[in-house]
Amino acid sequence: VYEKDRKYSDAVKQFDEIIALDSLNADAYFQKGSIYARAGGTAKTRGEAMKYYREALPALKTYTRLRPKSLEGSVLNAKALFGSGDYAATIPEAKRSLKMDSNNVDLWHILEKAQIETGAYADALVSFDALKRRKAASRSAKSLMRPPRVLRRQRRTGGATQGRLHLFRGETHL
Prior knowledge:
With about 170 residues, this protein is mainly alpha-helical. It has helices at about 10-20, 25-40, 45-65, 70-85, 85-100, 105-115, 120-140; strands at about 150-155, 160-165, 170-174. The longest helix is centred in the first third of the chain and has 21 residues, at about 45-65. Mean pLDDT is about 85; it is low at about 140-145, about 150-155 and about 160-174.
């Protein structure tokens, strides 16, 4: 009900009351973190989104401490870490989640983007390949995906058009 009306603070207050009564109620922590994460996902600006994701992190951290084998909690925690801009912390959490579900394409995508943001380009290419394999396996591969931050440029040289693929900081000629 609160979510439909975008009354996130009212919903959070309800879960804070539950947590005050039972500090080991893992579901209340998960729901509180989930509310903030959904608010971050629907925020109008990047700054507002990051704020909501940061607010989700303490509840999700507590939830994953109370339920360390919860795939759902680990995935949501990885998404919130990425959304908050904490890319370095996203990587181990995404890897932990992938140990529980190695076919989760969303996690592979988050891991890949976090690796790019932290400058781990070689690792990002490995994650991209894993992501590509999972996507191809999960649905028919109609077209090949391009890695992120890849720019195709056309350049005229001597009357011929030459394509150049720029990948991250290095270059690969086509």
